[in-house]
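At this stage, I wrote out one protein's amino acid sequence and its backbone structure tokens, and that material follows here:
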Amino acid sequence: MSESTKSPETAGAAAKAAAKPAAKPPAPEDTPFNTFIPSLLIPALVKEIQSYGGAEPSLSFREGPMPVIGSPCSMVVGVLPGERRFWLCFTSPSLNAPKTVLVAEAGAEPSLVESFLIDEKKITLALLVSRLVQRLNGQKWLGAN
């Protein structure tokens, strides 16, 4: 059927289909947990921490016992200049799982163990990055504190 012989209904349906916006791309948080952490969260953390002017932190993702507590968890383990260490622990492999943050000065056991993002309804990449970096900056571990 040529363009000139299409019925008005067919032309209208084609115009509607063309006018529909493309489907929204999935949110980063919709990425499976074991992919989200190493491919999205860790690079975003490195970039944000470096924006404070420090050296690149060493960050890794692993499963194991939570420091001090000993219960199994999925965790981001970070080492900052001066051998300061931190752990962001997820009690199960989900962004919505209860989270704990721990920090330790060089050569010491963790001196701070606290719940992390306990009141948030929706956990996003931006929220995880900003609040963890805010917490590290509160320790005066970033930039020219």
Observations:
- Residues 55 and 81 are 7 Å apart (CA to CA).
- The two ends are 72 Å apart (CA to CA).
- The longest helix spans residues 33-50.
